[in-house]
């Protein structure tokens, strides 16, 4: 995941889709982190 690429190719349709994918990815990643650290946000 490269932020600069996402910013450079900023088309509304693509942005919405990629944002949802990134949110889902980050949510899963943070859930794993929270389970490891024993934190719940």
From TrEMBL:
Domain of life (superkingdom): Eukaryota
Chain spans, region Disordered: 1-21
Name used for this protein in its record: Uncharacterized protein
Organism for this UniProt entry: Trifolium medium
């Amino acid at each position: 995941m490269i932020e600069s690429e996402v910013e450079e190719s900023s088309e509304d349709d693509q942005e919405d889709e990629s944002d949802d994918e990134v949110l889902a990815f980050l949510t899963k990643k943070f859930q794993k982190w929270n389970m490891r650290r024993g934190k719940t946000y």
